């Protein structure tokens, strides 16, 4: 059409009585408070869906007449007041929840949490998958616990894509600009009312960053935006898409996030006592902090020491190739102009990111060198990470290097269906939401009558099937399918009779997650699914990264199998996986399937969401499930760790999967159908909730972070900051001296070893150590005891030797009188490692000398 196009949006006037709806719309509290969302939805359900459940967009578009009616409607007002009173109670609850740990946080402490993505709710689309949802949950739980907590991320213009799938299973990725006005965010303003802006350095130019904030209950999320007129066209697009663009975009995004984020906090006067790098993308924050200390006169080595001592780094990637890295040339180009301000040359800077003698700059290596608290996200992943990162502590065994683990959890209010609340109130007692980590409380689940439990499950399944039908219908119509065909597709997905055993598989289509493992043996699968007395419905959903061709091929394969006549209606592939669909699927399916390649699922969280809702997990014993599975709370697929090739591994693991489905899952679900429900199934589902809920929730996870990292790091920070970091300067110098001397440290046994003593007798151990110029108390000399052939000798007993006297030639004698407390054959070794009172981990230098 000819002519200029003008846009005009007409916003309603919110009646005074409903004014506080705007407050609710501007606090992400709604992302975990379902009654708040239900309040908006009931005002206008169709509009609520149309604005993708965004309260802010909703209030801008809703009809004036509808608002007027609501302002006069006593029922609506009553519901609103209930929601507001819960909101006010949450806001006002000042009672400091007692945090665990010997050295609790104090009110001046501040935790700053950096991540490249945050998944709170579908109305703030700046997440792609598990990492983002975990980060969102972390913030929500920090608010619940009233931690002094802020988060920093990027504000993407387009976020991640929305997905449609065509009739051949081909994914189409659609990108639409986010309208920041519709999102629950607001610009951070200076005192004079202008937007807060900071700049950071890119080659030959500054890039300007505008800072936005989102309220997450008590916590604040700051989001960085480069789409500003004062930036070049190129720089305006840096934060265009999450995980979009090329390597240049990626390094620029990470510079904006890490370095720009630090500057933004400084500009706002925020002085964190702990910095948490959640996955390597944000590790450049280390460099910006170093720059800060160096420009105020600190030498580089001391600055690195200071920065590291209150930095926490969490890795989520179990394969070295998955760690974010940049080629050397790129890093040179981006940092050669500014590294002088960091007190080092560009080669010194490159060395911070080097691992395995590769020339690439590895963000994980930088994060590890710039932090003293490191962790993986499950027990298995902690061990894997300790091995992958072993080179950082070359003389220390991976089993005792500083790589720790904290197993992930999920934010229960965000993912637990409200249908459970009343029943939990009745059978667990009011206040169960405040006893999430109390195992005893969750034993109460067994008091829920079986029929009640089953009927809640069926009702959740019906709600899910309702959504599934709508999605399939929409997808089918767009792909020009016929009505008759649609009926065949939906014959088992019937909300009116949700009796079909339903199994869900929804997550990113990354190849290691093996979405198509189920199709290894189609004839066997046909026998399992095709029994019309005991039908089974499989629901698949998920996105593949647009550049991930093998991931997209898996989707086409699912669609191809789903289209075969024998599987029609029994396998569905849904488009548009997001938090909304995820919440419905995890609460509605009977079984949650996960079959990644061991040990590549660092933790996984969707199975936890399913479990807390009473669904049963059928999963490879990897990630969190390796810890949660107890033999009777779901089903475990043992990974074939020593398979000769991937084909053999997949064949064996898929056989286990078929056998479990055929012999356990399907018969258990359909047992005793005459009762109208399966008592054995209910028993297993109850056990699953009782064992998983108290352990795999965010509150437990966050308390562990506080206890292991946040509180000790803050305490340490207060101590080292008190003397203007003089101690840390000395520590840096001391470490230099120790490194130079270490190869000359030699141990020699002075006493004659005895091989047999009587119980109660004492032996005196005497070790002479060549100190090579170090002082006697620069080292710990210790005996490490274990039983012969013990599998994990390192976790054995250790006994420290005392400094005794100087010997000739620079040697020093250390002694220990030892009275063994156990009888039997013992084995011991003697070793020495550097020691300093300002260490955060006893082996942080990665050095060890053995006799
Ligand atoms: C929980 C969740 C994930 C993570 O799923 P995993 O199976 O742990 O990979 C991804 N996307 C969405 C939308 C989720 O809610």
From TrEMBL:
InterPro entries linked: Agluc_phsphrylas, Glyco_trans_35, Glycogen/Maltodextrin_Phosph, Glycogen_phosphorylase_DUF3417
Catalyzed chemical reaction(s): [(1->4)-alpha-D-glucosyl](n) + phosphate = [(1->4)-alpha-D-glucosyl](n-1) + alpha-D-glucose 1-phosphate
Domain DUF3417 stretches: 14-124
Keywords: Allosteric enzyme, Pyridoxal phosphate
RNA-binding found in the keyword field: no
Gene3D superfamilies: Glycogen Phosphorylase B
Modified residues (N6-(pyridoxal phosphate)lysine): 609
Pfam families, per the entry: DUF3417, Phosphorylase
Molecular function terms from GO: glycogen phosphorylase activity; pyridoxal phosphate binding
Claim: Transcription is one of the keywords in the record: no
Domain of life: Bacteria
One annotated GO biological process: carbohydrate metabolic process
Family to which this protein belongs: Belongs to the glycogen phosphorylase family.
Protein name: Starch phosphorylase
């Amino acid at each position: 059409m000819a002519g200029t196009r003008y846009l005009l949006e007409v916003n309603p006037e919110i009646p005074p009585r409903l004014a506080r709806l705007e407050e609710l719309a501007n606090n992400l509290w709604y992302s975990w408070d379902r009654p708040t969302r239900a309040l908006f939805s009931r005002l206008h359900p169709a509009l609520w869906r149309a604005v993708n459940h965004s309260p802010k967009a909703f209030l801008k578009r809703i009809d004036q007449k509808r608002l007027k009616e609501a302002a006069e409607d006593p029922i609506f007002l009553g519901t609103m007041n209930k929601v507001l009173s819960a909101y006010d109670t949450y806001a006002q609850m000042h009672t400091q929840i007692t945090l665990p740990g010997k050295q609790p946080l104090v009110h001046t402490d501040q935790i700053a949490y950096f991540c490249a993505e945050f998944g709170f709710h579908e109305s703030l689309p700046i997440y792609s998958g598990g990492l983002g949802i975990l980060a969102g949950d972390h913030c929500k739980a920090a608010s619940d616990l009233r931690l002094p907590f802020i988060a920093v991320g990027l504000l993407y213009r387009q976020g991640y894509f929305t997905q449609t799938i065509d009739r051949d299973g081909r994914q189409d990725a659609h990108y639409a600009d986010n309208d920041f006005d519709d999102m629950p965010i607001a610009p951070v303003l200076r005192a004079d009312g202008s937007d807060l802006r900071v700049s950071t350095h890119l080659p030959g130019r500054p890039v300007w960053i505008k800072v936005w904030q989102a309220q997450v209950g008590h916590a604040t999320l700051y989001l960085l935006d480069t789409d500003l007129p004062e930036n070049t066209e190129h720089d305006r697009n840096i934060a265009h898409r999450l995980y979009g663009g090329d390597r240049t975009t990626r390094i620029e995004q990470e510079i904006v996030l890490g370095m720009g984020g630090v500057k933004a906090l400084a500009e706002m006067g925020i002085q964190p006592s702990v910095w948490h790098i959640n996955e390597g993308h944000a590790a450049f924050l280390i460099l910006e902090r170093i720059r800060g200390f160096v420009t105020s006169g600190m030498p580089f080595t001391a600055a690195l020491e200071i920065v590291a001592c209150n930095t926490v780094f969490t890795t989520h990637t179990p394969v070295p190739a998955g760690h974010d890295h940049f080629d050397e040339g790129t890093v040179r180009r981006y940092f050669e102009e500014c590294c002088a301000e960091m007190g080092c040359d560009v080669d010194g800077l490159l060395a911070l990111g080097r691992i395995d003698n590769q020339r690439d700059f590895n963000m994980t290596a930088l994060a590890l060198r710039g932090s003293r608290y490191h962790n993986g996200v499950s027990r298995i992943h902690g061990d894997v990470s300790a091995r992958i990162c072993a080179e950082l502590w070359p003389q220390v065994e991976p089993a005792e290097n500083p790589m720790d683990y904290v197993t992930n959890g999920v934010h229960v209010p965000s993912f637990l269906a409200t249908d459970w609340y009343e029943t939990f109130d009745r059978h667990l007692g009011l206040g169960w939401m405040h006893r999430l980590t109390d195992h005893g409380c969750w034993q109460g689940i067994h008091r829920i009558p079986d029929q009640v439990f089953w009927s809640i499950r069926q009702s959740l399944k019906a709600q899910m099937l309702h959504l599934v039908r709508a999605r399939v219908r929409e997808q089918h119509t767009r792909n020009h399918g016929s009505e008759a065909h649609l009926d065949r597709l939906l014959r088992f997905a019937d909300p009116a009779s949700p009796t079909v055993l339903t199994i869900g598989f929804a997550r990113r289509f990354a190849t290691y997650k093996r979405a198509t493992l189920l199709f290894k043996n189609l004839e066997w699968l046909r026998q399992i699914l095709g029994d019309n007395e005991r039908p089974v419905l499989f629901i698949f959903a998920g996105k593949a990264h647009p550049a991930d061709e093998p991931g997209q091929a898996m989707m086409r394969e699912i669609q191809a199998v789903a289209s075969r006549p024998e599987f029609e209606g029994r396998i569905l592939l849904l488009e548009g996986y997001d938090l909304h669909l995820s919440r419905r699927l995890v609460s509605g399916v009977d079984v949650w399937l996960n079959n990644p390649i061991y040990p590549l699922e660092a933790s996984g969280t969707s199975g936890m969401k399913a479990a807390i809702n009473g669904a049963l997990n059928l999963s490879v014993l990897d990630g969190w499930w390796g810890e949660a599975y107890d033999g009777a709370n779901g089903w475990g697929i043992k990974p074939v760790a020593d398979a000769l090739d991937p084909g053999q591994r997949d064949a064996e693991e898929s056989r286990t999967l078929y056998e479990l489905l055929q012999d356990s899952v399907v018969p258990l679900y359909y047992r005793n159908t005459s009762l109208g429900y399966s008592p054995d199934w209910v028993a297993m589902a109850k056990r699953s909730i009782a064992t998983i809920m108290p352990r795999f929730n965010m509150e437990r996870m966050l308390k562990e972070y506080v206890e292991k990292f946040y509180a000790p790091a803050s305490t340490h920070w207060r101590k080292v900051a008190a003397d203007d970091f003089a101690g840390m300067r000395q520590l840096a110098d001391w470490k230099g001296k120790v490194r130079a001397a270490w190869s000359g440290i030699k141990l020699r046994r002075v006493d004659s070893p005895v091989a047999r003593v009587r119980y109660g007798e004492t032996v005196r151990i005497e070790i002479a150590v060549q100190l090579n110029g170090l002082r006697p108390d620069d080292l710990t000399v210790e005996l490490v005891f274990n039983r012969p052939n013990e599998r994990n000798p390192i976790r054995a007993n250790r006994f420290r030797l005392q400094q005794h006297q100087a010997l000739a030639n620079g040697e020093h004698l250390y002694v220990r009188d030892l009275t063994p407390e156990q009888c039997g054959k013992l084995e011991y070794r003697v070793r020495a490692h550097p020691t300093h009172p300002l260490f955060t981990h006893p082996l942080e230098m990665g050095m060890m000398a053995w006799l």
